[in-house]
Specification:
42% of the residues lie in helices and 15% in strands. α9 (305-320) links the parallel β12 (296-302) and β13. The protein folds into 4 domains: 117-213 and 222-276 and 476-535, Response regulator (Rossmann fold, 3-Layer(aba) Sandwich), CATH 3.40.50.2300; 278-405 and 536-580, Rossmann fold (3-Layer(aba) Sandwich); 597-645, no CATH class; 656-926, Rhopdopsin 7-helix transmembrane proteins (Up-down Bundle), CATH 1.20.1070.10. It contains 27 helices and 32 strands. α5 packs parallel to α16, α16 (469-488) crosses α17 and α20 runs antiparallel to α25. The N and C termini lie far apart (169 Å). The chain is an alpha/beta fold and 927 residues long.
Length: 927
């Protein structure tokens, strides 16, 4: 028989192959393995069941447990080898009876091994790879014996449903009249056991149709047996497969591999997917966390390409959103239990919100460990892989969990297809047989008798209420079918479609057409961008308790990455949070700072851990974490949470200082007027006539103006008041000093005129006196005019002198003009002082030299002191200093020049006679 098949196989090769598949041979023992009555019992059992469809039964194992080596009887022959009883025939699966015609040959063995596959011939074959089992027992490499084959355990009913969805889609396409009419699609469905080694093995099988365990000596040079591949579910096995099939140009369309790394077309040019990349999910999760105000979270991930790349994308998006991650732990279900326990302990003792970018198998292990010990409630934020897995709903500690999942969908007819199973139909597939026994055997390990009704079964396999990823499988098959259709079919003139099923379609052709597919199926659009990714749309799923405490998936919001950033996230329903609360959980390192304070990052900690410090002067904080400076004309309120207008301050008539200065000013003017009245009433008296009455009246008038001009410095500054106050002050004071200077010159000239031969008085008579006063005053008026024309004073708001208020004051405009006015006044005062000092020893009855000297001394002292006081006084006190200088110098002139004369006029009239004056003058001359 070996020669007929063209295969040369040695005895050792057969033994080695059988050994790899857990089919061990044993040497004859002294004590038979089975007694005769054992053999007879098994022979009767085999004879009774070998021709029945329901020939698969439990063989020495407990429900939910893998077959153990000690319970396996490798080979028990009956009747010369025509019947063989296999104990736990496939690794990790239940035992089965298999009828063999003749002796055991390699062809018979290969035929049996093919029962691990679900195949269907067609014109074009599509491969399917799913993680129908999620755990592989670790092989102990002792290097003293041949390693045992990989043993897959832990059936995933949802993944089984994915594989059935592929078969359903293929059969639906085969019955279609518009898509590939007359063409039949075939399929090969493989179980990768969520394992990289198994995925690599499957990739080789799909690439050339040759199982690497049977080395026939042929080269891998033939064309691929499949035109495209649907799967795998996990990212890491997918990457491993792409390393093999990618160089061969075989396109792979995944329904569940979401790693963002797979979008790299340089590394994975043949990869497509119908599920969005984790790059979008990571951004959506970060946006979700920021939306609910969580700034202090924990993160766990699968230690795989899916978890590591997904978490890396999330951490980057979280950093951009200002979210701090307290810890980021990685683990895998293949890690030692101590590692999973450590991750669980970290979760129990830290942040309230936990983001889990974890595969379903890894998450199942973690939650089982979390369930083992009482754990404080945590708000779980899940990635799509596990947060929409119905099998995970049994973990009540995740009640209130939220996460983004693929949109729910409806596949017409799919539920009927899933339920179209019977004991007779499942007997041809070990995978379906295992599912059937697991679904109906239950914990009681009941033997299936053919009366089971799948219509009554409540299991993830039959649950079509949450067809999310299942629809991604459905869309992937249709995408491949559309690509093949565009190659082998063409539309004729009469709108009929003609397809050539004999056309030799290469995978590279399908790859090229997949890039351009764009169609709609059951209302769902299917297309790929330049990276082979679809448009990212998600539903926000919330785990809510319903009737009798059962957890269910409830859609509470949506996220569409194709919309503008501010429109992507939309909440539709209320979320039920952890502990069945309606209040959003709080998860922050530091509470938000109250208004009026700012954040100060704690040394050595993330930016989310901070102390609250009061804002500095002039700064506020409201709803922000930092203080901001108020605008120039604003100042913080007492709480420093808002800016208010600064009060405007100026020297007002209504405040105490303004009232005092006003009273002094008006009082001084009244005294000057009263004195003028007294002088006028006694204008014919000796003392009035002896003191140059004309200049005295003019001096009193100018003093009254000096007193009154100070009023222009009080009140709200305006454009006119600013110009008036400085010009009026400058002109009136020059007029006043000019009069004093004129009186001084008259006295000096009069004394000189008494000398023999002097005619000085004719050169300084009344006309010359008037001209002198007018000339001096005109110069000041000219200076003021130039000042007003070139750069006049103007009102300004001074916000710098006081931080908390604005000083409304007059800017001098031109500093040169201002100091020129003051300098001219000072020059005249100095000249007057010098002349008065020279005339101090003249007779008292004819001059006022002494009083003028003292008055000028006071005047100069006041204004010399004024300069530093004016420069250093802040705000409105600058104006008060200037008013004080005006009033003080005016009173100095008034009291020294007029009060003594008024005293004589009013209280010593006997001295107000010409005789008295002449006598006193004579005495002074003799002296």
């Amino acid at each position: 028989m070996l020669e007929e098949t063209g295969t040369k196989v040695s005895v050792s090769t057969v033994k080695r192959v059988l050994y790899r598949h857990n089919l061990k041979g044993r040497s004859v023992r002294k004590m038979p393995l089975l007694q005769n009555h054992h053999k007879n019992a098994r022979l009767r059992f085999a004879t009774a069941h070998v021709d029945k469809d329901s020939d698969i039964r439990y063989v020495w194992r407990k429900k939910w447990e893998a077959c153990k080596p000690k319970n396996i009887i490798p080979i028990v022959k009956h009747g010369g080898g025509s019947i063989m009883l296999w104990g736990c025939f496939a690794a990790g699966r239940t035992g089965a009876l298999h009828k063999i015609d003749g002796i055991m040959r390699i062809e018979n063995y290969v035929d049996m091994m093919k029962q691990h596959l679900k195949t269907s011939d067609g014109d074009f074959v599509i491969g399917g790879v799913f993680s129908i089992h999620y755990f592989v027992h670790t092989v102990d490499h002792s290097y003293t014996s041949m390693p045992e084959p990989l043993q897959c355990t832990g059936r995933d009913s949802r993944e089984l449903r994915f594989s059935r969805a592929m078969i359903f889609a293929v059969e639906e396409i085969n019955n279609s009249s518009y898509l590939l009419p007359g063409v039949t699609l075939g399929y090969q469905v493989h179980d990768s056991c969520s394992s990289v080694p198994m995925a690599v093995k499957v990739a080789f099988q799909l690439a050339n149709g040759q199982d690497p365990m049977f080395d026939t000596g042929e080269q891998c040079s033939g064309s691929a047996t499949v035109t495209a591949i649907v799967g795998e579910s996990a990212s890491t096995p997918t990457i491993s497969m792409l390393r093999i099939i990618g160089p061969l140009g075989i396109p792979q369309v995944s329904h569940f591999s979401t790693c963002a790394c797979l979008s790299d077309k340089k590394q994975y040019p043949t990869f497509f997917r119908t599920i969005p990349s984790d790059q979008f999910q990571a951004a959506a999760l970060a946006h979700l966390i920021r939306h609910f105000g969580w700034t202090w979270i924990g993160a766990v991930r699968s230690d795989s390409d899916y978890g590591n790349n997904g978490m890396a994308a999330f951490l980057q998006a979280a950093q951009e959103e200002g979210i701090c991650v307290e810890y980021s732990e990685a683990f895998s279900r293949t890690n030692p239990l101590s590692r999973v326990q450590r991750v669980a302990d970290v979760i129990r003792s830290t942040a309230q919100v936990v983001v889990a970018f974890v595969s379903s198998g890894d998450m199942r292990n973690l939650l089982e460990e979390m369930d083992r010990l009482p754990s404080p409630p945590r708000q779980w934020i899940g990635s799509e892989t596990w947060v929409t897995d119905p099998d995970m709903l049994r973990f009540g500690l995740c009640a209130g969990a939220i996460g983004f999942g693929i949109k729910r969908s409806v596949i017409p007819g799919f539920r009927d297809f899933l339920l179209d199973l019977s004991p007779q139909k499942v007997s041809n597939s070990p995978l379906l047989t295992e599912f059937w026994e697991g679904a109906f055997g239950g914990v009681e390990e009941k033997v299936c008798d053919g009366s089971e009704d799948i219509q009554q079964l409540q299991a993830p396999y039959t649950d079509t209420s949450q067809l999310r990823v299942t629809n991604m499988v459905y869309k992937a098959v249709y995408a491949i079918a559309h690509a093949i259709h565009s190659i082998v079919c063409e539309e004729s003139e009469n709108s009929t479609v003609n397809c050539d099923k004999n056309l030799n379609v290469k995978p590279t052709q399908v790859l090229e057409r997949l890039r351009r597919v764009n169609f709609s199926r059951n209302g769902y659009q299917v297309s790929f961008d330049a990276n082979g990714d679809p448009i990212a749309t998600y539903e926000l799923v919330n785990w809510q308790r319903r009737e009798r405490g059962k957890l269910e998936f409830v859609t509470v919001g949506r996220y569409d990455a194709s919309l503008p950033l501010d429109q992507r996230f939309d909440m539709e329903r209320e979320i039920t949070w952890v502990k069945n609360s309606s209040q959003v959980p709080v998860s922050v390192c530091s509470e938000s700072c109250p208004p009026g304070t700012r954040k100060a990052i704690q040394k050595g900690k993330p930016v989310c851990c901070y102390d609250c410090i009061q804002c500095a002067e002039g700064e506020i904080s409201n709803n922000t974490s930092d203080c901001m400076i108020c605008p120039e004309e604003y100042w913080p309120n007492a709480e420093r949470d808002r800016c208010i207008l600064k009060p405007v301050e100026f020297l007002s008539f209504h405040e105490v200082l303004g009232i005092i200065l006003t009273a002094c000013s008006v009082g001084g003017a009244c005294l000057a007027i009263a004195t003028a009245t007294i002088f006028y009433r006694h204008r014919s008296s000796a003392i009035v006539r002896a003191n140059n009455s004309e200049l005295s009246f003019l001096l009193l008038f100018s003093l009254a103006l000096c007193f009154l001009c100070s009023l222009t410095f009080i009140g709200r500054p305006s454009e006119w008041s600013c110009m008036l106050r400085h010009t009026a002050f400058g002109i009136t004071f020059v007029l006043c000093i000019s009069c004093v200077l004129g009186k001084t010159i008259v006295v000096l000239m009069a004394f000189r005129a008494t000398l023999p031969g002097s005619n000085v008085m004719k050169w300084f008579g009344p006309p010359q006196q008037r001209l002198t006063v007018v000339s001096f005053t005109f110069v000041q008026a000219l200076i003021c005019t130039l000042w007003l024309v070139l750069s006049p004073p103007f009102p300004i708001k001074n916000p710098t002198t006081y931080k908390e208020k604005i000083i409304l004051e007059c800017d001098v405009g031109s500093a040169i003009g201002f100091w020129a006015v003051l300098g001219y006044i000072g020059l005249l005062a100095l000249l007057c002082f010098v002349l008065a000092f020279l005339a101090r020893k003249l007779p008292d009855n004819f001059n006022e030299a002494k009083f003028i000297t003292f008055s000028m001394l006071i005047f100069c002292a006041v204004w010399i002191t004024f300069i530093p006081a004016y420069v250093s006084s802040p705000g409105k006190f600058t104006v008060a200093v200037e008013i004080f200088a005006i009033i003080t110098s005016s009173f100095g002139l008034f009291f020294l020049l007029f009060v003594p004369k008024c005293f004589i006029i009013l209280f010593r009239p006997e001295k107000n006679t010409k005789k008295h004056l002449m006598e006193k003058t004579s005495n002074d001359i003799r002296y």
